What does this fold into?
Amino acid sequence: MEYISTRGNVEARGFIDTVLMGLADDGGLMVPFKTPVISPETLEEWRSLSFQELFLEIFSYYTNDEIPYEDLKEMVYTSYGNFRAPEVTPLRKINDSLHVLELFHGPTFAFKDVALQFMGELYSYISKVRGEIIHILGATSGDTGAAAIQGVRGKEGIKICILHPHGKVSKVQELQMTTVDDSNVLNLSVEGNFDDCQKVIKELFADLDFKGRYHLRAINSINFVRILAQTVYYFYAYLQIEGSDEKKINISVPSGNFGNIFSGYLAKKMGLPINKLIIATNENNILERFVLTGEYKPGSFTGTYSPSMDIQVASNFERYLYYLLDEDTVKLSAYMSQLQTDGKITVDGELFNQVQADFAALGVKNQQCLDTIGKYEQEYGYLLDPHTACGIAAYEAFSGSGETAITFATAHPAKFDEAIALTGIKQDFPAQISALFEKPQHMTVVEHDKAEIVRQLQAFYG
It folds into this structure.
């Protein structure tokens, strides 16, 4: 398996070099040269596998034997050894047509742990076997930062800097990042929104001299390993439903940066027979507008009760566009240039028909989000976080008669008590989260100024 850039101007790379590159050197995103297809017979054989066993099976198609099996196995079992559920991502049946896949049983109570616990182990492994200096740089709308920091804190040979939008993440999200005092961690709280943070990150990775001099590595979902690790729980959830091969299975996914839903798209390309992929977002509904109209146009930023999806520029959209354009790197590059010059992309005709065949999408309003939280707590005794509530609302909008739905629970509700409290529901915090409020914080507040951020990075990375 080799990996290429969506924009076609990077020499093909192996698995580990793709991990280290993160954002492609031509500004594109790395994708496999050819997507492996899993046969129905193999899928049936996988039905009895544990999450860890399934992870190893799927990754075996992508790692090119660059990592010895026993080394990969040790990383996988170490990564998921600290999850609170033995299944790693347990599937809960809510009613006859709805299951919830709980992705929040990792150390930071969010779905990002599933990929980032593994990535932390992988980066540590690469640092040791290659003698590589690993300086991780990322931006977060809340959950990525905490999960990434947790994955690499205290690890030798690795430093990590995370940018987050000041005052625009939940208090628990902020505390999970900023109460970490390991010397290899730097938190920059940026006066701006997530898109401002992400823009700086992309510009720094596009500066190849700066990227090389400071050994920058990506932890955001621009790194293909994040995407691949997330495909595992799509397969795992589907295979947990009895008789799923004879049912129409829809999957509803809270998604702001297009990474989680793109992992589902990749799983479907690999042969997982998902019926509908449903994008659930909030009032920052660029993805809904694209699916409904064919126009991808970043709009004005809106703060919502589901802040991890308060995003207008979806980083992984380029990967989907690449496949939509039949893997034509020239056309893809032209579209991305148009986005830079015109501020929007429009697809029509057969391309637009394909978009609507690939996805359904719903932008959930704030009040609908809260109403959904209240409804499911009252009717089923099941408390949703606001992002998961958006996924449930989208499931209700698009699942038809005779269809079975899986909605991803992307975070524990305790991470977003500000929203939960508005419904009148009082929740008990897990002990690990309650303890955060007693710890001192360690972060540097900076202006949305690239030069100042660069100065902070230079001092930190050395």
